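Record type: monomer structure entry
Structure origin: computed from sequence
Chain ID: A
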Amino acid sequence: MCSGPRGNSKECSGAFTGAEIASQATITTQWADLKASCALHTDNIITAQEITAALEAWNARLTLEGDASDNKVRLGKSSDKTCTGSAGKTCIDCTNFFKKASPTALDKLPWYNKMRQAAVAIEKRALQQAQESLYATSIEAYQAAVLGKLVPPQSKAQAQAEQKGTGNSQKQQAICTAHKNNKKACTDANCIWEGGESGKGECEIYKNQFQSS
């Protein structure tokens, strides 16, 4: 429909000049020229909803007319319900997919089926990512709850007194681990901060304090 020169109707784009297609080489050239006449937005992220909306828009552009006891369905223009490519008859005949008697399922239309499959795949991936994010958040919450029960928050003075009084490296390691994502609390507990300035990192025990024990 896009490449036929007859009638000079330029159905697809005024920037594209149609040409007679007589060989695979011509088809290859024409397809490249047609794509070059349309803007390409490579920065867009296509969603499943956008693909579905595009398919619905395609369906809405179809023309349905009665033909005897059945239907004639086309995309494009025709003065007599036929799509011959001549002036006034530049269209794509889609009747087989919409006729009343034994229609062909739309999923047998290759490009339509591929777009539907892409929409389903994108939607499944988005759901999977949402579930993974939920699982990760739940695990972090459980870990925080466990650490909070095993190691109650301590003030700097309490932490220093415990270090000097017992020299218990295992207990101090637990204290440090509890502050792994809090730089100030980590250093206040006499631990070593290894996470930069972002607030996310590791809080390690200062092992020199327990070497003599």
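Annotation 1: The first strand starts at residue 63 and ends at 67.
Annotation 2: The chain has three domains: 1-42, 45-150, 151-213.
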